[in-house]
Amino acid sequence: MMKMRFVAYLPSLVFSTLVLLVTNGCVNDHVVFTTSTKFALDISQQADQPPKVLLGYKREEGVFLPSPHEPGTIKLKVDVPKQSDVSKPGNGDQLPPASKQTTQNDTYSHDTYSVVSFICVMANPSLWDAIKGLAPFNKNTPDGLQIHSVFATGVAAQRVSESKEVRNFYRQAAAQMPERAEKRCF
Amino acid sequence: MARDTLVRDFSKQSRTTLALRIAILSCSFFVSGCAVRTSQGEHYIGPVLYTTGQQATVQSMSEQRHFPVLVEVGTQWGLSIGVIRRVRAVPLILDEMGQRHSANQPEHIRSWGMIRLSPTTFLSLLYLRATPSEPPKFLARSILGISLGVGSEQYTLTAGMKHVTEVRPITEGIHRLCYQSGAPERMSYVVAERLESLSQLPCGRILL
Predict the structure, then answer these.
(1) Of A81, A99, A139, B66, most Cβ neighbours within 10 A?
(2) What is the pTM of this model?
(3) Would the pLDDT of A170 be above 60?
(4) CB pairs < 8 Å spanning A and B
């Protein structure tokens, strides 16, 4: 009797699960770097992406950047002239806006979200190697996936983008890319 | 007389059914695993192959392998049948001077029924509790089989093979991640305020 009831409710259960998968997602307000390898029938949702249905093989590397973002951590002191100074003859004809009528304002240096990144992903497409990599107690497994990434986020990214070392690193990394015939990130 | 026989047969049948249920429960307990993840810690009931990483290049790292059934409860709910592998890591945070941040603490592990296979790998048969210092910033999940999962880590319904990695970096900082799926215990994940601090901990052949 219980089995019959379960079978009767099975379509509803599957439908509810699919609805749950489609209508719910990870709502993030921060950056997410993701890689995925699938050889499956897969219904999934990652980060703020819309849900996906896949049947077959797919490799994916992506970065999800949020639009809204909290202010950065660098505090800037902005000197704004007093209204009395501005309104003096010879200092200008227009008054500053009401919001700028203070001697010093604390403002934050921020934008949507700054990210500077270098990402190297090498994926072994062999399905057999991937299966061997999953086997328990097997430590001598091939590298199905290698990730080497260097990235800066937020205000640190703004600082790093001006660094000479980072520019040199990018130049070297770009030069090494075509030489990596052995398909290894490190 | 007939009533006595009937009662005796019934009680014998009940005992047999009860013994069978206990046997099935015991078998299912020993061949399947249950993961309970909360904000305070992670609990693993049943067999799990647990690997921890080097503390010099990552604050805390652990790998869990389950076979053949895994039930997940807590921050992530799910049911998986097959080979399931999960790698979680918290980055090593270096301060402005390139020194390890004093607040960092490696995860605390307590296990009952543990068989140590190597200095970093052990098989927990009954119960294992891990108390990570922070929520993971790096997650890798692999499944070969069928999996249904809903929660903070993923929303998925999969039949086949799937390998997903996710990095959710802290808001501000310079990050360097080196990860090989074949040797996750050797992974490196460092966050520094200055670029020079990263070069102190090389990642393979790469200087930065």
Answers:
(1) B66
(2) 0.73
(3) yes
(4) 180
Residue among A111, A141, A145, A170 with most chain B CBs within 10 A, to mutate: A145
Burial class (CB in 10 A: 0-12, 13-18, 19+), A137: exposed
Q: Which of A67-71, A90-94, B21-25, B101-105 has the lowest mean pLDDT?
A: A90-94
- Per-residue model confidence as pLDDT tens digits over A120-152: 888 776 667 666 666 666 555 566 788 888 888
The residue count for chain B = 208
Distance from CA of A106 to the nearest CA of B (A): 20
What contacts B180, CB < 8 A, 6 or more positions away?
Answer: A143, A145, A146, A147, B186, B187
Which chain A residue shows the shortest CA-CA distance from B179?
Answer: A147
Taking only Cα atoms into account, the Rg of chain A, rounded to an integer number of angstroms, comes to 27
Average pLDDT over every residue of B169-173: 80
Residues 6+ apart with CB under 8 A from A47: A25, A26, A28, A32, A34, A64, B166
Judge contact between A37 and A54, C-beta under 8 A: no
Nearest to B182 among A38, A143, A152 (CB): A143
Q: H helices then E strands: how many in chain B?
A: 2, 13
Q: Are B59 and B93 in contact (CB under 8 A)?
A: yes
- Give the ipTM: 0.76
pLDDT tens across B149-166, in order?
Answer: 998 888 899 999 999 999
Is A151 in Cβ contact with B169 (below 8 Å)? yes
Nearest-CB residue to B65 (from A26, A136, A154): A136
